[in-house]
Design goal:
Radius of gyration: 20 Å
Helix content: over 70%
Number of strands: 0
Structural class: mainly alpha
Number of helices: 18
Order of helices and strands: HHHHHHHHHHHHHHHHHH
Strand content: under 5%
Length: about 325
């Protein structure tokens, strides 16, 4: 798993399941297998396996069941089901022990932030401070990476940078490409948001070379959009979407559309930009949560600019109002 072959790791773990006669041992194997499956298997399959195993172990060990459900919440998030992820994370947190509580709390923080409940997200992340400082950055890199991502969304730059340094440093020291992939992609986005394009590109390019992760490829494409590398940008978006659609990682669709919108906008093709950026709005609304916090994929401001550039100030106005409302409510 740490070597980057999640598919092989999941297959090996599945092969030893029949040897686990004790229910708790089986649950532990399935929890690790679920983590491996997040790299290579359909998200719906991973979610179903984790929830089924949680139901199986709950009569014997409610704490282990909570840990499995906390990881299932990550799968929900990856599928773009923000509300479902928050619901199952809340259920997991109610019965979680010290091991599962950080994962469930991290997912809840991401959900609260995505809905514009920034103060609530900040409180949840602050409650994790002590546990995040003590957990293993290799074994719990999903938790640390998710917390760092949520910190970026609510613009807590110093805390996010400290977390990125810890995960990436540990992954490099351990030569663990599977651990390095996600935090490097997130760090690229972090640097791009702060205008450090060269650093963002270096991080994204390293990630893209190390893995076929859909998120890594789209993160690389976003920097390429800013740099004007049209062909590379489109090729990496297409590759990322091809992989995400095989695994059901539907969250990538929005990142991809916003990236293509940014590319067209940066090239002065406002009409094409509007086409991609309005797709972002449709994708967010189809999951029933409405428009998400604009600092997540950052398409709404680009849409306003694109509409103005094409002379459609009237069409830009509703999105300006939404951005103003989020700004007033969140202080971001």
């Amino acid at each position: 798993l740490l070597g980057g072959d999640g598919e092989r790791a999941a297959a090996l773990l599945e092969g030893v399941l029949e040897l686990a006669e004790d229910p708790t041992a089986r649950a532990d194997i399935q929890e690790l297998r679920g983590l491996a499956m997040l790299f290579a298997s359909p998200v719906s399959e991973t979610y179903a396996m984790l929830v089924t195993e949680a139901d199986r172990i709950e009569p014997h060990d409610a704490t282990r069941a909570a840990a499995l459900r906390a990881n299932a919440a990550i799968a929900c998030f990856m599928a773009g089901d923000w509300a479902g992820g928050g619901e199952i994370a809340q259920r997991a947190l109610a019965r979680a022990g010290p091991k599962a509580a950080p994962t469930a709390t991290m997912v809840l923080a991401m959900v609260r932030a995505s809905l514009g409940e920034v103060d609530e997200a900040r409180v949840l992340l602050e409650s994790l401070h002590e546990s995040l400082d003590s957990i293993d950055p290799l074994g719990e890199f999903f938790v640390l990476s998710g917390a760092a991502m949520a910190l970026v969304w609510i613009e807590q730059w110093v805390q996010a940078r400290r977390m990125f340094d810890r995960i990436i440093g540990a992954a490099r020291a351990a030569a663990a490409p599977s651990v390095l992939t996600l935090p490097l992609a997130l760090f690229s986005d972090f640097e791009l948001r702060r205008g450090k394009i060269a650093t963002a590109y270096a991080a994204a390019a390293e990630t893209g070379q190390a893995t076929l992760s859909s998120f890594s490829l789209v993160s690389l494409a976003r920097v390429e959009a800013v740099l004007g590398h049209d062909e590379d940008c489109r090729a990496h978006v297409a590759a990322g979407l091809e992989r995400s659609r095989r695994t059901g990682f539907d969250l990538i669709d929005n990142f991809a559309a916003s990236t293509l919108g940014l590319l067209e906008l940066s090239r002065g093709r406002a009409d094409r930009a509007v086409m991609h950026l309005t797709e972002c709005a449709r994708l967010e609304e189809q999951h029933g949560t409405g428009i998400l916090l604009p600092t997540i994929t950052q398409w709404a401001a680009d849409l306003v600019e694109a509409q103005i550039r094409r002379g459609a100030e009237v069409d830009a106005q509703p999105w300006l109002v939404i951005l103003e409302q989020f700004g007033c409510r969140t202080g971001l």
